[in-house]
Specification:
- It contains 5 helices and 8 strands; from the N terminus they run βαββαβαααββββ.
- The protein is α+β, with helices and mostly antiparallel strands and about 200 residues long.
- The chain has one domain (about 10-200): Alpha-Beta Plaits (2-Layer Sandwich).
- The strands form 2 sheets. A 5-stranded mixed beta sheet has the order 2-3-1-4-6, with helices on both faces.
- A hairpin with a 7-residue loop joins strand 7 and strand 8.
Length: about 200
């Protein structure tokens, strides 16, 4: 067969750093549009972007040559920079990891509708409840003690591993974590211990 045919659709979910609800209503739609532009800029297609103050959902179509971890690294970096420069939120950052769910063509309309109705969904459940629901429905094992990224008295856990899920056909291994948030310098320690956060000088 001389030609290649593929359908690579992904539903991606990630939160703001430490789930801080800092995506303001006044510029949320602009951020969503910018995220769509970032996806287009790396050669993908944004089918839907939505979310509330503490997280976003992306429904996107990628090429066979794309690496999902690399696409998300660039999308997060570009959108964080946009928030810093256009809205003066210098401390804004995304969480290190994400959940990536493969979506079959027959499920695209349902996922699109789900993303566009985020405000309605989150009148009844938090982001954490939503995220855990996806893990449970996908049969993904996890330890909630290490699932959420938290900051206490200047300390934070090492970056969480990304979670790659499948809601219709196929799954893949975890991907390497993304870069640390731009608003701080991290000093890693060995052995899975805590690492200290040092504000930029």
């Amino acid at each position: 067969m001389p030609s290649t045919h593929r359908s690579l659709n992904f539903h991606v979910i990630f939160s703001t750093y430490n789930r801080v609800p800092e995506i303001a209503t006044a510029w949320r739609a602009d951020l969503h549009a910018y995220l769509g532009g970032c996806i287009k800029g790396v050669g993908g297609e944004a089918l839907a972007v939505g979310g509330i103050a503490d997280h976003v959902h992306l429904l996107m179509r990628l090429r066979a040559t794309h690496c999902l971890a690399d696409v998300l690294r660039d999308v997060k970096a570009g959108s964080s920079r946009w928030v810093h420069e256009c809205h003066g939120q210098r401390a804004f950052a995304w969480q290190d990891g994400y959940a990536g769910l493969s979506v079959s063509p027959s499920r695209i309309a349902a996922v699109y509708s789900y993303i566009k109705r985020q405000e309605e969904h989150h009148r009844k459940q938090t982001f954490q409840e939503e995220y855990l629901k996806f893990l449970q429905e996908s049969g993904i094992s996890y330890d909630e003690r290490y699932l959420w990224q938290q900051v206490r008295t200047g300390l934070a856990p090492l970056p969480r591993r990304n979670i790659f899920l499948s809601i219709s056909g196929g799954s893949g291994p975890p991907n390497p974590g993304g870069p640390p948030p731009p608003a701080m310098t991290r000093i890693p320690l060995r052995g899975g211990k805590m690492q200290r956060l040092q504000p930029p000088g």
